[in-house]
Design brief:
By secondary structure, the chain is of the alpha/beta class. The chain is built from ten helices and seven strands. Helix content is 53%, strand content 15%. The structure holds NADPH dihydro-nicotinamide-adenine-dinucleotide phosphate and the ligand N[C@@H](C=O)C(=O)O. Belongs to the short-chain dehydrogenases/reductases (SDR) family.
Length: 258
C-alpha cells in the first residue's frame, strides 16, 4: 500500500489535490496545522473514496518539523510514492513594513521546508519504480512582484530547485514537477493580508482550486516539468519572457499596490 503525502492539505489547493488523488484511489497522508479540519477531511475522504487516510497536525514553519514528518512516516511504515510540497503563503506589503521574523518564518515554510522534506523523503521515493514530487510555486515565480517581493522570490527558488533536481533524478524513477498557479480562490489573499480592493481584483482572474488541482495532478502524472494552469496564466508567464522586466514589474506593482 502506497501513499501520497500532501503538505497544506487542510484547505485550498492542497485540499483539492487531496480530493483529486483520493478520487483516483490514492491513499493519503495529510499534513498541516489544523487537526480538527484534517480529521474532518480524513473521515470525509475515507467515506467517499474508500481510501486509507492519515494526518499529522504540525506547524511546518518550525525548522525541526520536516524531520518530525519523516520520523512519523518511518515509525508508521508509510510507503510514499507521491510527495506534494504545497504548504505556503505570502506576506503582502512593503518589505520594510513586515517584521524580519515574519519574513523568515514565511521563507522557512515556502523554501526550507520544501528542501528539508524532499531531502528526508527522497530515499523513500527512490524505492519505487515510479514516484512523483509535485512542488507548488506560482506564476509569481517568473518575475519580481513588488509588495510580494520575498514571496515571489521564494517561489522562484522553488521553481529553479524543482527543475534542478528533476534533471538530477532523471532515470531514477522519481519524476519532479512544478505547479505554478496564478490567482486561485483560496484563503491565500486573506492570509497574505491583502486589501479588499486587491482581493476583488484577484478574484476577477482567479481559478478554482479544484481546476488548479485537476490540472496539477494530471501534469504530475504526465511527468511535466512546469504546470501552469489556465490560458491567461500561460499568456502572462509567456509575456514575462519577452516583455522588458520593468514593464511586467510595473504591471505587477500597479496590480498589488495598496
Ligand atoms: N491562491 C493563490 O492565488 C495561489 C497560491 N499558490 C500557492 O499554493 C499553495 C497553497 O496555497 P493556497 O491553497 O492558495 O492557500 P490556503 O491559505 O488556502 O492554504 C494553505 C495551506 O497550507 C497550510 N499551512 C499554512 N501554513 C502552514 C504551516 N505553518 N504549517 C503547516 N501547514 C500550513 C494551511 O493549513 P493550516 O492553516 O491548517 O496549517 C492550508 O492547508 C501555496 O504554496 C501558495 O503559495 C500559488 C499561486 C497562487
Ligand atoms: N495569488 C498569488 C500567489 O502566488 C499570485 O497569483 O501571484
Amino acid at each position: 500500500m502506497t501513499y501520497a503525502l500532501i503538505t497544506g492539505a487542510s484547505k485550498g489547493i492542497g485540499k483539492s489535490i487531496a480530493e483529486e488523488l483520493a478520487a483516483k484511489g490514492k491513499n493519503l497522508l495529510l499534513v498541516s496545522r489544523s487537526e480538527e479540519t484534517l480529521n474532518e477531511l480524513r473521515l470525509s475522504l475515507i467515506q467517499r473514496y474508500n481510501v486509507h487516510v492519515a494526518y499529522l497536525a504540525i506547524d511546518l514553519s518550525a525548522a525541526e518539523a520536516p524531520q518530525l514528518v519523516s520520523n512519523w512516516c518511518t515509525s508508521n511504515n508509510y510507503s510514499i510514492d507521491v510527495l506534494v510540497n504545497n504548504a505556503g503563503y505570502g506576506l503582502w506589503g512593503p518589505f520594510e513594513k513586515v517584521s524580519l521574523e515574519s519574513h523568515q518564518e514565511m521563507l522557512q515554510l515556502n523554501m526550507l521546508t520544501v528542501v528539508q522534506l524532499t531531502y528526508a523523503l527522497l530515499p523513500e521515493l527512490k524505492k519505487h519504480a515510479s514516484s512523483y514530487i509535485l512542488n507548488v510555486a506560482s506564476t509569481a515565480a517568473y518575475q519580481a512582484v513588488p509588495t510580494l517581493s520575498l514571496y515571489a522570490a521564494s517561489k522562484s527558488f522553488v521553481l529553479l530547485f524543482t527543475r534542478g533536481i528533476r534533471l538530477e533524478l532523471e532515470g531514477t524513477g522519481v519524476s519532479v514537477s512544478c505547479l505554478c498557479p496564478g490567482p486561485t480562490s483560496t484563503d491565500f489573499v486573506t492570509r497574505a493580508g491583502m486589501s479588499l480592493a486587491i482581493q476583488k481584483k484577484s478574484d476577477t482572474f482567479s481559478m478554482t482550486s479544484e481546476a488548479v488541482a485537476r490540472i496539477g495532478v494530471r501534469g504530475m502524472y504526465n511527468h511535466k516539468a512546469e504546470i501552469i494552469p489556465g490560458l491567461l496564466n500561460k499568456i502572462i508567464v509567456a509575456a514575462t519572457a519577452w516583455l522588458p522586466k520593468y514593464v511586467t514589474e510595473k504591471i505587477a506593482n500597479d496590480l498589488y499596490k495598496k
